[in-house]
Amino acid sequence: MQNLRQSFRRAAIGRSGTPSPFKAYLFMAKQQSNQSRLHVPEPPFRPGDTPDYSHIAVPTDHTPPRPDPLCDDYETAEHALKLIRVMRFNGETAGDWVPGLEPEVKRKMLRDMMLTRAMDDRMFAMQRQGKMSFYMKSRGEEAVSVGHAEALRDTDMVFPTYRQQAILISRGASMLEMMNQCLSNSGDPLQGKNIPVLYSFRKHGFFSISGNLGTQLIQAVGWAMAEAYKNEDGIASTFTGEGATAEGDFHYALNFASTYRAPCIINVVNNQWAISSFQGIAMGEGESFAARGTGYGLATLRVDGNDALAVYAATKWAAERARQGGGATVIEHFTYRAEGHSTSDDPSKYRPKDEAEVWPFGDPVERLKTHLVHIGEWDDERHAAYEKEAKLFVRETYKKAEALGTVETGPQVDDFTMFEQVYADPPELLLEQREMFRKELG
Ligand SMILES: Cc1ncc(C[n+]2csc(CCOP(=O)(O)OP(=O)(O)O)c2C)c(N)n1
Question: Which stretches in the chain have pLDDT values below 50?
Fold first, then answer.
């Protein structure tokens, strides 16, 4: 099976370094001429296999060129099949997309990624100690959120998934409030109405995260359409994992975004895995996820998601296009989910343990650090010092949150708060239920 998978992989390399379904079909047809021709995508590696990503081409020529942000959508069709990169692995930058950023902005991006990672590590450990019911880390994908947030205005509205906590960090949200939400304690701004990590921060333009995958995509397009209708210049930016692009909502969103030229950015974070199903199950054996936008007449970019500067540059381009009336852009962020899907997941059951280490695009924190060191704006001592500072800040903030209660110890919010904060005008039925509840409790 291992050999069959590896030869399948070699036979099925598409133009963009991702497998091509047509070649895959021919390969399977040849191998299994006497069997069913139904093709069920299989990941290249399973537990026990030695992962080898040499089939993924790492572009070194630092193309494609940066077109005018108001170009025709078809001029970006090729961009959906390539990979925008800015930083080389040795820290140099190259190509048309190098953003002219001040070193302090780059240092902020690095610090935001490190702080997010420190918070994720602490919260994961606290979940394991029973202090909260659930947690989701974003390790390996921090550059997607941080690079993106830095390129937007703070007033632009984000419709995220559960893996963009670094956007809140970048926008200066209170870590204490974030932790209170995860602990569902007496300081939880959502009063226990959402599961941990499904934040909602109106003051930071961060729309309530829904546990139902895909809903945020159409909401974002609707918000953007309303913004354009009112002649405001805000844009919406929404995120989905590559797995959830298989949902109808993704396609409705692209359809409406294209028809009404909605000022928005539709980000697909291709981290290779949904929970235990790999990206091929969401049609990832096609040329690219970004290319879905081509069929809908949208601009499309595909970017190295572990390169914070490339994410920044691609977002700036798409934001400029949206703000100037050019409509929506689909951006695929090509990255890797370095840890489990959530605290409820055990990835060693379905993929090799060391896959993250051999991921050919490296680690996003290390990549930006290498660049800053290369240009003389950072060094190992400062890195170690900030790592320590971030851990200390997270630990101190967690202590403050814990003092307001945990799932394990309480106190939790008053039960009656479940009837509040959802409706501006609560429907009659809800008011009746509240009365019944009050009587029952005496
Ligand atoms: C409509 C819906 N279907 C299924 C689920 C269960 N579920 C939660 S997360 C997840 C995987 C999503 O993978 P992907 O979209 O690739 O995002 P990632 O977690 O990798 O960031 C699934 C299947 C859900 N929450 N909602």
Answer: 1-4, 7-8, 10-15, 18-22
* 336 Cβ inside 6 Å of ligand 1: no
pLDDT in tens, 261-277: 999 999 999 999 999 99
Segment (H or E) for 269: strand 264-270
Radius of gyration of the chain (CA): 23
Helix (H, G, I), strand (E, B) or coil at 300: strand
Q: Output the CATH code of domain 73-402.
A: 3.40.50.970
For the chain, the 3-state helix, strand and coil shares in percent, each to the nearest 5, are 45, 10, 45
Q: Is the pTM of this model over 0.90?
A: yes
Per-residue CA distances from 146 to 153, 362, 364, 381 (Å)? 13, 17, 10, 23
- What number of helices (H) and strands (E) belong to the chain? 14, 5
Residue range(s) in the chain whose domain bears CATH number 3.40.50.970: 73-402
Whether ligand 1 lies within 6 angstroms of the CB of 341 is answered as: yes
d(CA 87, CA 311): 11
Tell whether ligand 1 has an atom less than 6 A from the beta carbon of residue 73.
Answer: no
**Number of the ligand 1 atom closest to the C-alpha atom of 211:** 25
Atom of ligand 1 nearest to the CA of 245: 15
Residue from 275, 339, 342, 355 whose mutation best tests the ligand 1 pocket (most atoms within 8 A of CB)? 275
Instruction: Compute, in angstroms, the gap from residue 243 CA to the centroid of ligand 1.
Output: 6
How high is the pLDDT of residue 197?
98
- pLDDT tens, residue by residue, 355-399: 999 999 999 999 999 999 999 999 999 999 999 999 999 999 999
